[in-house]
Amino acid sequence: MHSIDRRQAAILVILTVVWGFNWPVMKLGLADYPPLTFRAMSLVLGVPVLGLALLAMKIPFRLPRRHWPEMARLTLTNMFIWHICIIVALKSLASGRAAILGYTMPIFSAVIGAMFFSAALGARAWTGVAAAAVGVVLLLWYEFANLGGHPVAATVVLCSAALWALGTQLLRRTSIDAPTLTLSFWMTTITAIGLTLIAAVVEGRQWRMPGEAAWWAIGYNAVLIFGFAHAAWFSLARSLPPVASTISVMFIPVLATFSGAWGLGEVLHWQDWAAMVLIVAAIALVLWPAPRKT
Asked: Any idea what DSSP says for residue 31?
């Protein structure tokens, strides 16, 4: 097992805070602004931030043509579909509930690794998978049972989390011999172009200058999410085993849930509390290292 040095630990802490608070930030930005346009603007403004980082660190932009097909697969699974689905679904869901559903990703990743990539998954891990499944059922049950619920949006988040999990597995095993920041730059750029085109077709008639809250949220996402968080996550995903990000992944939905309740006045129901406990426990069971036998 790889150890985590101080630099990686610091990145994990910052990543947890940035991604955790981003859920209510996005919800605030989407209050009166089209979701796809919001995400497209965040991506477009995030690309030069990443580009400046590459220039400052003297990291090459070049990606050999032989890697383009694999880059397309990585972009589709790690960013493109996830960002479309999550931003559209978040318009209908409470930010905390969306975060809990979205961060079932590590559970899906463990199952996908076991089923398709010959990764070992023991009895404790399968117990975690079962706990996560119960948590998801509770949230879906609430959305289906509540007259004001949005079961389709909740299901979309869940499916996009599963695809992101596949993307994480593919990224861990990528054969592209390029720096992680280069991969992040091109995944972000491709997603920005694709999402801008889709936003123009779907929401073109709604385009207008964002209000103050939307601008603030777009800036937060451009600099901290697409300029830092995604690149940091991709780097950790390639350089460390899944256990390295356990603590971060466990606390992101917790932070998102409580910050949404505090900042946006979102009401937490018992299903949210139970699902949060079950999914955090599930991630710990799946990813936390087993004690060494002495």
From this structure: T
